User: Which sequence fits this backbone?
């Protein structure tokens, strides 16, 4: 019996020693585990936009991430910075994203965010969605970008002359065209020059109305009504894009047939649109983020350009305005809304 007690005692002491040893090891390993978890922290995207919040296009980008198995809040984080149409806030937000040491910055909604991001960092990769990246000084050329920027050229200014031509072909009698534009973006001067050149060749007189905010839209349409313009062309701009429902309504009240860049305007009741599928381009931007997070350098990722441009015609609107779209234009439409 005594030997059994001694053996029991020895077993008890051995078990206690093992427990103490395990506890000591856990205290040593715990900091290592914490360090490993910190080292494996999820990547962060800085998302810079002039808009006041999420738009249809931003949702397309997020869907692109989900299609690539990035789940926000689980294996990726997004630091959103919305400028609410205040251009000066973009510079401060870009600087803030750099200070947060995000892994990549996505600049959306036109040229101003891209320029702000470029000015804020030469180290953090930047994926832009904008028109005329060469003219803006973002990259030296479309074939040789270099540096820390890459992304998607959405062809905005390059298509303004084509839109004016389509508008004139659809409405042969139109001689006075009202142009709605935001003069704030750096690309505005190029857009205006392209339109003025096209107008001269088409024998069209432009009536330019510059609007810097939504509160100036009513006055712009009132001025065009007094000038008896025959049709409307809206120059691409994120602020105007966000007001598309209101712009289409004002055009309808003024009985103005209009052409716009994005198909969403035609779907909302505008007469025509001609441009790339912007939602698809935003979705494509997610593939750039994916490649960069996996180690690719922006300089090695070629700038993507749309290869297809959609002509969308809303025949319901044409009928409501009392216009007949020539068959020569209708047969070229990618989509006809009846």
Assistant:
């Amino acid at each position: 019996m005594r030997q059994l007690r001694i053996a029991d005692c020895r077993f008890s002491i051995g078990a206690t020693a093992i427990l103490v040893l395990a506890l000591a090891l856990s205290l040593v390993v715990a900091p290592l585990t914490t360090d490993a978890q910190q080292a494996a922290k999820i990547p962060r995207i800085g998302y810079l936009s002039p808009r006041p919040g999420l738009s249809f296009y931003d949702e397309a980008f997020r869907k692109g991430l989900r299609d690539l198995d990035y789940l926000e809040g689980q294996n990726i984080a997004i630091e959103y910075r919305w400028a609410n149409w205040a251009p000066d806030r973009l510079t401060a937000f870009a600087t803030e994203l750099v200070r947060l040491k995000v892994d990549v910055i996505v600049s959306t909604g036109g040229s101003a965010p891209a320029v702000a991001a470029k000015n804020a960092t030469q180290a953090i990769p930047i994926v832009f969605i904008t028109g005329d990246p060469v003219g803006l000084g973002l990259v030296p050329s479309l074939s040789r970008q270099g540096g820390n920027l890459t992304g998607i050229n959405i062809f905005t200014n390059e298509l303004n002359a084509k839109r004016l031509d389509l508008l004139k072909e659809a409405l042969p009698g139109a001689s006075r065209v009202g142009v709605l534009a935001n003069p704030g973006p750096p690309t505005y001067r190029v857009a205006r020059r392209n339109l003025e050149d096209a107008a001269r060749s088409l024998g069209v007189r432009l009536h330019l109305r510059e609007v810097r905010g939504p509160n100036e839209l009513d006055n712009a349409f009132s001025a065009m009504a007094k000038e008896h313009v025959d049709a409307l062309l809206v120059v691409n701009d994120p602020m105007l894009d966000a007001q598309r429902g209101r712009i289409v309504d004002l055009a309808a009240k003024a009985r103005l047939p209009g052409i716009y860049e994005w198909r969403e305007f035609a779907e909302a009741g505008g007469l025509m649109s001609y441009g790339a599928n912007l939602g698809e381009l935003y979705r494509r931007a997610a593939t750039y983020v994916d490649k960069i997070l996996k180690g690719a350098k922006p300089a090695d990722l070629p700038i993507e350009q749309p290869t297809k441009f959609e002509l969308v015609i809303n025949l319901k609107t044409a009928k409501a305005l009392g216009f007949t779209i020539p068959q020569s234009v209708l047969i070229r439409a990618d989509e006809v809304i009846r």
About this structure: Confidence is low (pLDDT under 50) at residues 1-13, 18-25, 27-39. The radius of gyration is 28 Å. DSSP finds 13 helices and twelve strands in the chain. The CA atoms of residues 157 and 193 lie 10 Å apart.
